[in-house]
Amino acid sequence: MNETERKIKAKIPGEDTGIYIKNSFCDICSPMPGCGTACYVKDDRIIKVEGIKGHPSGGGVLCTKGLAARQYIYREDRILTPLRRVGEKGEGKFEQITWEEAFAEIVGRLNGIKKEYGASSVMFFSGYSKWYRPFLQRLAYSFGSVNYGSESSTCYYATAMSHRLSTGYDALNPDRKNSGTFLGWGYAPYHSRNMGPAPQGGRKGKARVIIVDPRITPALKLEGDLHLRIRPGTDGALAHAIARELIVNDLVDHDYIRDHVYGYEQYKEYVMQFTPEKAEEITGVPAEKIKEAAKIIGENRPLSINQSASVLVHHKNGMQNHRAVHALLALTGSFDVPGGMTPNPDTFSHVRAGFGTFVEEFEKEKYPKDQPQPVGAVKYPLWAEVVGEAQACDLSRQILEETPYPVKAVYAHGMNMRMFGADRKMEEALKNLEFFVDVDLFLTDTAKYADIVLPCCTSYERSELRLFPGGNAQYTEPVIPALGESRPDHEIICELARRLDVDDDLLKQGPDACYSYVFRNVSLDLDELKNDRQHVHKIGGVKITHTGENRFLTPTGKFELWSTVIEKHKGLDPLPVYYDGLDDADVSEFDMILNTGGRLPNALHSRLHDVPWLRSLRPEPMADISFEDAKRLGIVAGSKIRISTSEGSISVRANLTASVPKGTVFMYQGYREADVNSIIPYGHNDPYSGYPGFRSTRCAVTKEVQ
Asked: Is 236 in the same domain as 360?
């Protein structure tokens, strides 16, 4: 082996090796991280991926998902051409067609259904990834349909509802370095991202750290001072008990409450019933630990809180639980102050770069008039008012029942039927659609129900305007040519707008015209960004809104503990009341709690179970159970067990661990051979948000005969 061959084997870039480094970012898990990636490319193929040191997102570190990018990009089931279904729905039999044929059929069918049933009989849906969503939402409304919905029907937006009802803002940023106390409620960054907010583990700042979690997690071991080991779904009761202790021990910020809080007296009266002793009965957290937590918070202000996207809200009582936790910020004067929680507007498509834009106007200015209410608005009116898009958890029912009006077609990007509770009902609904289009990277189980499947690109094969925290932007370029005939999602959407001939000249002009419209309030020069696509650039003239310069965007102009928006809705309580989050199954038959929706370091939903490197880290579907429960049930490590609910059952292997509490079984999502969402009871949903109770369902666990 000569020197050049040795260098090629070592993947050393240079003219002699033909290996070049091109910068991009990872979009595998979500648009929010967008971790910077340096891609080693040879012969138009990525041979190595690593983090970019100093990048504003990721900082040079990649998680297992990002490090497996090559296997993700080159998966055997990548869709390389448009496809038309020729077999039965779900059978997976397709024929290759051209883009011209695909667009012609899509346009003809969608316009035909619009003419016969009305524009809102077509649902436009976004799953993963999320980066193109403003384009798809605008297309739906320009087409004339009110039915734009997304995977956010079960992810994050219930959290956003809580924020908006309380303060008017999305407030995801804890100012930990200036906090007196950091409350890590369902805090698991070491599994859900490439690293915790405290890189290399350990503390960040001088804040006291309280971890609230049923499990013993890396975050607790690396950062925690106090562990409140809570029973799943009882978060609201624990928050109220802490609040009561703050109030009765005069550890609240009276000036802040007087000047900035609405509904304090009603709230104070309500939480007095949640003594530490009563809360211990409900939550399982010892009364003395509740008192200790309140003392830490009251004596070490301000307070910042982990604001996980969905941990708190994946319960039948989830949105109110989240409001209860959020209320601790009002009591301690910790919202929009140094060391507390910072308002953080959406800059573009769920990316918060530190400044606002015209993205909401872009998305919603074409909202159609004289149309019926969106899917789910009748069942979940608060969601409809606060979020504004369709609540897709009610989509399967509306497709099958055709009330209050029929939904006959779904045009989707990255749809995953397994994101819904009792997801077999969504599978049945997809079978009953007149027309279904899915745009995706892979021929997923959901895509197999589509009439037309279109191939899209990964972030490594497309150009897009990408935003990063701190007022940073990059106009990326492909690091490799698009595989097969795949195209970027936003280009597919803009081309479809032209083909459908919607009344929307801006969308028809293409992505760059849309970017210019959205970012017209800042001096963002697309041509300048395009001249240096390898680097992230600071956007000139961006004003980052500082802490303390905001005002509450609620009807009262205050932090609302009594929600003036909720009080308009009959049957919903304006206070963040606590109620039982479990389903109504017979406790004598279903004596344990099923908690699903947690993260594994190597997986995200069902997208990564077919990536060999990542699947090898947990080859078989497994459920985590305690040693105490295992002994009671006669289970040993690796035993086959059956998890049953009132909806059905699945068979998995047992993973015995001291990290989970007795009486609770933790199962992970997305396995086709053990689809846990299929056994979440239909209708086990939060009446405020519509979210399924993924994390608190009654279940039984039995050992299977080998």
From this structure: no
